[in-house]
Specification:
Layout: H1 2-40, H2 52-69, H3 73-90, H4 115-129, H5 137-142, H6 147-153, H7 158-177, H8 189-192, E1 214-216, E2 234-236, H9 252-260, E3 277-278, E4 285-286, H10 288-299, H11 314-333, E5 395-396, E6 411-412, E7 417-421, H12 428-461, H13 465-472, H14 474-481, H15 483-489, E8 495-499, H16 500-512
Antiparallel strand pairs: 1-2, 3-4, 5-6, 7-8
Helix pairs in contact: 1-2, 3-7, 4-7, 7-11, 9-11, 10-11, 12-13, 12-14, 12-16
Pfam families: Tyrosinase
Biased composition (Low complexity): 520-533
Domain Tyrosinase copper-binding: 154-171, 312-323
Length: 533
């Protein structure tokens, strides 16, 4: 009797709970349908295509997001036009099926692109950055990765889907400029494999690719890149991180673990908010999102700041690789593409709940981000067996060719010189700073002044007087940057190829000559320290 009574009570509770949830489910269904229709048929001049109830709902969401981001109507209309284009391009309406995308150019590792393809992509990014009608389209997209979005897009399972949608929106914006470009990914495991402490000399951070890696970015396609809040884009790759330990790039073992380990078969095992997996290097519980954090810290400066990170174009190359790693996992657990992986979304609550709205993407839920609708095709990462993706200029196969394991990764080449544009050192003030050596830098900025200018976050990123002194030293600075040396090294026009240390010195001095870019105060943190650094 007692057991029957207990079952009856439990049944009544379940019926009651379900009846309470039913109105919310109906509301959510209507809301998602309304917002989806509003964006799919978005018209910046009128909302008359919507029924009155949906008009009100859409304008409430529009105003809410506009206030969150502190955007103008011009910026909001641009974002919605991109979202409309994405929905129309990717949505599969026939039979309600979700298939992996075909017929699109595959995303490949940035170093394997031809010079022409890389130039086209980087040129489109620069064009996207250039203000049009007083608005930078690049900055408008970057601003979506805001403080308001932080809690929706990080620290939970929606991290993967949210950033996939974000990449697709960014790629759509680039393709509106040049239809023949696709995003490339920066496989930072190829730089992790560089021997010893040579990572700071990786060719990835040179004028040929992403631009120099320490101080203000003064060469490459993104030279003198201005940040939305003011200041020049700066980096500090593989640098000291006060007060924390040295950072790390993405580890090959972690990528291989989530891509091939047969015991990791569910999203709950790779995301925050789930069970995670055991990090083989530390023995701690780990996730793919945490591994992603490490590279943000390794690049440093803007990339280390959660909100400001998209201000560096490297953000999108890094996240395209994170998406590639996720896709390897998805293909492992769904090799035939016949499983709807939305049903594998972890059952969590709060901002990352399966059916919670995805911030910034109207009519899309967190669960939808796991759909195959938005999956992109990827070229395999460079290995010895595929000839390093055809790139011998930037990558090499260790030991010169296939050995016992032909699938082992290629390794990034290092550089011993880089380009310094004349404009980076031509002004008289800059020349005077170069000639004065670090003693003057210490006198001008000193520990207290430097801390005041750059604050703890910047000191963590490595622009401390001590770091400048240890990097260059008085004798080295005078030898490399005295007036005579600068006259020889840098012509009045064009650029000169000098040592990486010399390039760093010019770029760091440039960073010290201007106020630091504003940061949010929320920083990515390393979960693993590379002792080689």
């Amino acid at each position: 009797m007692t057991s029957l009574l207990t079952l009856f009570v439990h049944a009544c509770i379940l019926i009651g709970v379900n009846s309470m949830l039913q109105p919310k489910r109906v509301k959510d269904t209507y809301e998602n349908s309304c917002l989806h229709n509003a964006v799919f048929n978005f018209n910046s001049s009128s909302t008359n295509y919507l029924e009155p109830k949906c008009q009100t709902l859409f304008m409430d969401k529009y105003t809410e997001m506009k206030n969150f981001l502190n955007y103008t109507d011009m910026q909001m209309n641009y974002l919605y036009s991109l979202e409309r284009a994405v929905l129309r391009k990717y949505e599969k309406k026939q039979n309600g099926r979700h298939k992996r995308q075909t017929g699109m150019m595959a995303r490949q590792e940035c170093r394997t692109l031809s010079d022409g393809a890389r130039g086209a992509l980087f040129g489109a990014i620069v064009d996207l950055k250039t203000p049009t009608g007083g608005m930078s389209r690049y900055d408008t997209i970057a601003g979506m990765h805001s403080f308001a979005a932080y809690r929706y897009a990080h620290l939970g399972p929606s991290f993967l889907g949210w950033h996939r949608e974000y990449l697709i929106m960014y790629e759509e914006a680039l393709q509106e400029i040049r239809s023949d470009v696709v995003l490339c990914y920066w496989d930072s495991t190829l730089d992790f494999l560089m021997p010893g402490s040579t990572q700071r000399f990786t060719v990835a951070f040179s004028a040929d690719l992403f631009g120099n890696g320490r101080g203000n970015v003064i060469n490459g396609a993104f030279a003198n890149w201005q940040l939305p809040g003011g200041g020049t884009l700066r980096r500090n790759i593989a640098g000291d991180r006060f007060p924390g330990p040295p950072p790390s790039l993405t580890r090959p073992g972690i990528v291989d673990l989530i891509a091939t380990d047969p015991s990791i078969t569910s999203h709950t095992q790779i995301v925050r908010g789930g069970t995670g997996f055991t990090d083989p290097d530390t023995g701690r519980v780990h996730t793919w999102e945490q591994e992603h954090d490490n590279t943000h810290v390794w690049v440093g400066e803007i990339m280390q700041d959660v909100v400001a990170a998209p201000g560096d174009p490297v953000f999108f190359f890094h996240h395209t690789f994170i998406d590639y790693g996720w896709e390897l996992f998805r293909q492992k657990i769904n090799p035939n593409g016949n499983i709807d992986l939305r049903n594998d979304y972890p059952n969590v609550g709060g901002f990352h709940a399966p059916d919670a709205p995805m911030f910034g993407f109207q009519g899309i839920t967190n669960r939808d981000g796991y759909s195959d609708e938005y999956t992109r095709m990827y070229a395999p990462h460079p290995t010895c067996s595929n000839g390093c993706g055809g790139s011998t200029q930037f990558l090499y196969c260790p030991d010169g060719g296939p050995m016992a394991n032909p699938n082992r990764r290629c390794i990034s080449r290092d550089i011993n010189s880089d380009l310094v544009p004349a404009a980076a050192v031509a002004p008289a003030a800059a020349m005077q700073a170069m000639a004065s050596g670090p003693e003057a830098t210490m006198a001008r900025f000193g520990p207290a002044a430097t801390m005041g200018m750059f604050g703890p976050a910047a000191t963590r990123a490595g622009f401390s007087p001590a770091a400048t002194m240890s990097m260059f030293g008085p004798a080295a600075s005078r030898a490399l940057f005295g007036p005579a040396a600068m006259t020889r090294a840098v012509p009045a026009v064009g650029s000169a190829r000098v040592s990486v240390e010399a390039t760093d010195a010019v770029a760091v001095r440039s960073a010290l000559s201007e106020p630091p870019p504003p940061v949010s105060g929320i920083s990515f943190e390393s979960s693993f320290s590379d002792s080689r650094l």
